[in-house]
Write a structure and sequence with these properties.
Radius of gyration: 17 Å
Family: Belongs to the DNA repair enzymes AP/ExoA family.
Cofactor: Mg(2+); Mn(2+)
CATH superfamily: Endonuclease/exonuclease/phosphatase
Pfam family, one: Exo_endo_phos
Strand content: 15-25%
Keywords: Hydrolase, Magnesium, Metal-binding
GO molecular function, one term: double-stranded DNA 3'-5' DNA exonuclease activity
Number of domains: 1
Number of strands: 12
Number of helices: 7
Strand order of the largest sheet: 3-4-2-1-12-11
CATH topology: Deoxyribonuclease I, Chain A
Order of helices and strands: EHEHEEEEEHEHEHHEHEE
Shape: globular
């Protein structure tokens, strides 16, 4: 089973890019972030025509997450537990082909310090709590999406420039490391421990051309999935397509049970 994550940065505006990539790579499951579309504006028919069922959690102008699958999707949860007042569409969870898949779009947190960083850290704590509960069930789980954090200096071009940014502040990285330490495996780093790998390149200053990127889109695998990991990678070339997102798709291949 090939599972991918892709921050599309506007699902309707970049629909041709998304459909071209789906046709080219044929993942079995896709987690999308930053739909930037209200619930009723999700391009369901185009996704169906491409061969995918879909569930989605939309929001006007901002956020929004979706899970696409070639087969059946059993929705388990929309919205991250722990704060009934939080109206941001940032989490959706489904059961697909024997695996629980959580699709997330963690808050950016800038400008930092400030209320946006506070919200990010609070959201992180809720994710850590929910992830712990998922691990305790002893079932195959994949938590993937745009985490908006570079875990180490290896994951960012010129780390010294990012020290005060909410994607790289010590307390944000510490939260990510606490999450992973529960027993999750960072799929990319398991297979490529020493390589420079990025998933995001800004639109400014020819960042993509210079490969001045960040690794902020991650796959965390529970122990029940980690042993089935066959391959992982970043479809970096998609970032170079016309009118593409500033993120590239990231994917893992896991052995079917």
């Amino acid at each position: 089973m090939k599972v991918a994550t892709y921050n599309v940065n506007g699902v309707n505006g970049r629909l041709p890019v998304l459909l071209r990539w789906l046709e080219e790579t044929q993942p079995d499951v896709v987690c999308l972030q930053e739909l930037k579309a209200p619930q009723e504006k999700f391009p369901e028919q185009a996704i169906l025509d491409a061969g995918y069922n879909a569930i989605w959690h939309g929001q006007k102008s901002w956020n929004g997450v979706a899970i696409l699958a070639k087969g059946d999707i059993q929705e388990l949860k929309r919205g991250l537990p722990g704060d009934p007042e939080d109206l941001h569409s940032r989490y959706i969870e489904a059961f697909i082909n024997g695996v629980v898949i959580g699709c997330l779009y963690l808050p950016n947190g800038n400008p930092a310090p400030g209320p946006k960083l506070d919200y990010k850290l609070q959201w992180f704590e809720r994710l850590i709590s929910h992830a712990s509960g998922l691990l305790a069930r002893g079932i195959p789980v994949i938590l993937t999406g745009d985490y908006n954090v570079m875990p180490t200096e290896q994951d960012v071009y010129k780390p010294e420039r990012w020290l005060d940014d909410a994607l790289f502040r010590p307390e944000v990285r510490e939260a990510f490391h606490r999450l992973v330490a529960q027993g999750w495996t960072d799929a990319i780093r398991k297979l490529y421990p020493d390589e420079t790998i990025y998933t995001f390149w800004d639109y400014f200053r020819n960042a993509y051309g210079r490969n001045a990127g960040l690794r902020i889109d991650h796959f965390l695998l529970s122990p029940e999935v980690e042993g089935r990991l066959l391959a992982a990678g970043v479809d970096k070339h998609v970032r170079g397509w016309e009118k593409s997102s500033d993120h590239a798709p990231v994917w893992v291949q896991i052995k079917d049970e």
